[in-house]
Design goal:
heterodimer, A: 156 residues, alpha+beta, Alpha-Beta Plaits, three-stranded antiparallel beta sheet, two-stranded antiparallel sheet, 4 helices, B: 345 residues, mainly alpha, 0% strand
Chain lengths: 156, 345
């Protein structure tokens, strides 16, 4: 860029750009609502594809989909699924009887979801896994299971 | 030596003129006034720090303090001050500790002293000196010495660079600042702050009188430089100098620098309101309220500028002061004098 030597023009351009800057900050000043959310006081605003706490899905009859095949446990890079137990019923469909997800270790990497051959688990919109001890961050099968009937769907 | 003799003679004549009782009574009265002004300044600083954080939050689409003491966090600054008081007081091993300990007070006391001539209301002024404006100019140059003391005694390269920058900046920007004040003095025909306010009675603000708009602009720009705020915050440029001259200070010694900075900010705004916006004068509301409204309006404007503009480079800063502000200020003084002589534009 050529060096400006006209002092008056330089001052005028500078003043104009300062005025523009002030207008930008003023428009932000008056903007409502703010970007910041008042999280612990009010529930956080979650986007639809947010991946948080693990959710165990149900089939059309409301039965648990998980068959305790351990594929998710093998896929997990941080050992965040410490316990999976099947219900040892011979000759019938196998279902999970116990399942523990460790919120303190989970990376939300989605590997378990991709590994699952039955499309039984997903990472849902739950975001709060805090607690006062490590055990508080664990969730068992009952807490992981998606609610039934699904909210928003009429009970059949 | 001569200073001590002069002080002794002044005290003696004062005492002889009033006698024991009058002397003590006046002394107590002055202490009381000093306590009131100090309390006012401290309270104002508490409010200003909170305001600064609220304004910055607003401008950046954040919320700012919103927990301590209610929904808008009004006690946030009080909590911060309490934290500063409880912090460990560290004096670095290599520091020149006498100067190190003195520096915060050398910075803080003059910024408190200048509030002496500010008329807070039609009758509320501690001492309306004959040479009020001169007093302000003289005393508000003092903190620079404190900054150099702080930077030098810290034995820290960032501190000394910050202090030298502060000295260079204060010296450069004091000249246009004084010239802007001279414009007002010429227009009012008096150095007494009370007379300057009286000359603006009835809504004839100096801001509205023709050549004084230049003086107002120059005053505002140089005032921002004097209180070391963005875009002129080179002495404490965080990204370059850690914290500048006070980077070795901790606890309440740092708190004093902080106090002085915000007290100075309020003084500069209050003095701007007095010189250009008619001081305490205004309709309906009591004068003290008008004074506060005008002062805070300028404070908020300075904060707005702070959260808008980036920092200048040191050569830009110096060039701006010497090549632009000083000549323009000189021209403004001459123009004001000319208009004053002719009695009209």
């Amino acid at each position: 860029m050529a060096r400006r030597t006209n002092l008056a023009a330089e001052v005028a351009i500078g003043a104009w750009s300062i005025a523009q800057g002030l207008a930008v900050t003023l428009s932000n000043w008056l903007r409502r609502p703010r970007v910041t959310e008042n999280y612990p006081a009010r529930p956080a605003h979650i986007l639809p594809r947010f991946r948080g706490r693990m959710v165990h899905k149900r089939d059309e009859q409301g039965r648990l989909k998980c068959t305790a095949c351990l594929a998710c446990q093998k896929a997990c890079p941080t050992l965040a699924i410490p316990l999976i137990k099947g219900d040892d019923k011979k000759g019938r469909e196998k279902r999970a009887a116990a399942y523990v997800w460790d919120g303190g270790r989970c990376l939300f990497c989605n590997f378990c979801v991709e590994a699952c051959p039955f499309d039984a688990i997903t990472l849902g919109p739950g975001y709060s896994t805090v607690g006062e001890s490590r055990a508080d961050t664990h969730r068992d099968l009952e807490q992981l299971l998606e609610p039934w009937p699904r909210p928003g769907e009429a009970a059949r | 030596m001569s200073l001590a003799v002069g002080a002794y003679q002044t005290l003696m004549t004062w005492w002889l003129a009033r006698g024991w009782f009058g002397w003590i009574a006046q002394f107590i009265w002055m202490l009381l006034m000093a306590a009131i002004v100090t309390a006012f300044v401290l309270l104002t600083v508490l409010i200003l720090v909170w305001l600064e954080r609220k304004v910055s939050g607003d401008i950046q689409s954040r919320v700012g303090p919103n927990r301590v003491g209610g929904r808008f966090g009004p006690l946030q600054t009080a909590a911060d001050a309490l934290k500063l008081l409880m912090k460990e007081d560290i004096i670095p091993t290599g520091a020149d500790w006498v100067i190190f300990v003195l520096a915060p007070f050398v910075v803080f006391v003059p910024t408190l002293l200048v509030f002496m001539v500010i008329p807070f209301s039609d009758r509320w002024v501690v001492q309306d000196l004959n040479l009020g404006v001169l007093f302000v100019i003289a005393v508000s140059a003092f903190p620079t010495i404190g900054l150099i003391m702080a930077g030098w005694s810290s034995n820290n390269k960032y501190a000394i660079v910050g202090a030298l920058r502060a000295a260079a900046q204060s010296l450069s920007y004091e000249i246009p600042l004084v010239l802007a004040m001279v414009c007002v003095v010429v227009a009012a025909g008096s150095l007494r702050v009370g007379d300057i306010v009286a000359a603006q009675r009835g809504g004839h603000w100096f801001l509205l009188r023709f050549p004084l708009q230049f003086a107002f602009l120059i005053y505002l720009i140089t005032a921002m430089a004097e209180v070391n705020r963005v875009p002129f915050d080179l002495p404490e440029a965080e990204s370059e100098l850690v914290a500048g001259y006070h980077c070795e200070y901790s606890g309440m010694r740092f708190g004093f620098f902080f106090l002085a900075e915000f007290a100075h900010l309020f003084f500069v705004s209050a003095f701007c309101a007095t010189l250009f916006l008619g001081g305490w004068e205004g309709p309906v509301l009591p004068p003290a309220i008008w004074f506060l409204i005008k002062s805070y309006a300028i404070v908020v404007f300075i904060m707005w500028v702070r959260w808008t503009l980036p920092r200048l480079r040191i050569d830009q800063l110096m060039a701006f002061a010497w090549k632009l502000l000083v000549p323009v200020a000189l021209a403004a003084v001459m123009l004001t004098a000319l208009v004053q002589l002719r009695g009209r534009w």
